[in-house]
Amino acid sequence: MNCVMIRMWEKRTNWIRGTVFGAAALMAVSGLSGCALKTAGGYYKDAMKYYETKNYTEAAASFEEAIARNPERAEYYIDYGLMKIQMGDYSGALEELDKAILDKDIKMVQANNKKAYRGKGIAYFNMLEYDRALEEFEKALAIAEESELDLDILAYKASICEKRGEWKEAVSAYDEILRQHDGNAEIYTARAYAYLNIGGIQMSRDDYDKAIELDPDNFNIYLGKYALMKKQNDEIGAAAVLSQAEDLPVVTAEDRLQYAKVKYYQKDEEAKELLLTSAEEGSTLAYFYLGEIAREEENYEEALGYYEAYLDHNNFVNSALYNQMAVCSMEIGEYDSALEYVEQGLKVSTAEQAKALRHNEVAIYERQGEYETAYERAAAYLQDYPEDERMQREYEFLQSRVTEE
């Protein structure tokens, strides 16, 4: 899987949406400390401030204090649960979000229920429990209140289709979103990617062009269109898209990362320094691309270091990353680690993404001299991908080795 396909879904950071309530007026009581006077609302406000600065320890303590003082406020549980999702504590998040759900036909209660169901769906999504995620998202969509959340929920549903390799279903999901929320460049970009995976080249191109029309300064759209051109083997068109992206305004740290990615695809030596700067500015994705540069230069241990840094700083994982780590481990002779990375990658891959991982799995066993296991894996691979001529030749070679032994 081309690394340009690491897409917008890893960028979901706008999960905490609750209203921050101001603290109640404090009564000046002689002999009482400010801490003793603080209300549940005050602790909640503190919790949200700590969350904004990613001080999760203090935020958690403040959430706990707010809940202890007023356990009836659903938004405390919702925002605490959403913060736990950000921390990767999905089970803890589910526990908090469940506490917010009430069986009352009151608009405010239903609004909170919708937020809680959405949060539960996101937690299950990150736990790779897609069926349960869909159940929670459907519950959320069935509630009319907080309709502004529907776009985000529908996008998660579409993403689940992508994760499963159900590209036609993903296109249908994006169609539904655009029927309700036309004019969204991000959704056109996502549908373009889905079209690309079912061979709808012209429709993919049309969607990328529409997205560029709607959001002409968005690097991600140009990089998506670049991937389309590469898939078509249109090197001239691909280079032209990168040239367009190269001229986009660079203002924010995110812009600098995207500009660095453009330079990486242009094979510009400046890319490494730009990516190192982005990493210093806090970009976790920069580590992945630094790993790609090191791997292409056959500096496999350095590449693994960057890939591991990416994993250490990011909850988002995908099969492409694990595949690259498996390749690097194989190249330095760490075969057990390579097989572990293959196993991890297969847990989060679609059928198409699994192809590269399983191909490399055969190579790892062969490098180890375990020809019989490699032969068995190659045979299983060809049952699922019989059109792969390269693996067919490998299978015949392994068959001869097993026969000799």
Would you write up a description of this structure?
- The protein is an all-alpha fold.
- Among the domains are: 84 residues, Serine Threonine Protein Phosphatase 5, Tetratricopeptide repeat (Alpha Horseshoe); 89 residues, Serine Threonine Protein Phosphatase 5, Tetratricopeptide repeat (Alpha Horseshoe).
- The protein contains 22 helices and no strands.
- The longest helix is centred in the N-terminal third of the chain and has 20 residues.
- It starts with 33 loop residues before the first helix and ends with a helix.
Main attributes?
405 residues; 22 helices; globular
SSE topology:
Blueprint: H1 34-37, H2 40-52, H3 56-69, H4 74-87, H5 90-100, H6 107-126, H7 130-141, H8 150-163, H9 167-180, H10 185-197, H11 201-214, H12 219-231, H13 235-246, H14 253-265, H15 270-280, H16 285-296, H17 300-313, H18 319-331, H19 335-347, H20 351-367, H21 371-384, H22 389-404
